[in-house]
Specification:
2 helices; mainly alpha
Length: 53
C-alpha cells in the first residue's frame, strides 16, 4: 500500500505546482484577484495584518 501514498503525494505536488504556475501567469498578466492583491498589500504591515481572513 506504500506505492499509493507515494502516488498521492506526487499527484498533490504536481497539482500544487500547476496551481502555482497558473497563479503566477495570472499575476504577471495583471489579472490578480482582488483578495490575492489584498493579501500581498497586507504583508509587512506589522502584527494584525490579515486578521480579516
Amino acid at each position: 500500500m506504500q506505492h499509493i501514498a507515494i502516488f498521492s503525494v506526487g499527484a498533490a505536488a504536481i497539482a500544487g505546482s500547476l496551481l502555482l504556475g497558473w497563479l503566477w501567469q495570472m499575476a504577471s498578466a495583471g489579472a490578480v484577484p482582488a483578495w490575492l492583491k489584498r493579501i500581498h498589500e497586507n504583508e509587512g504591515r506589522g502584527p494584525g495584518a490579515g486578521d480579516h481572513l
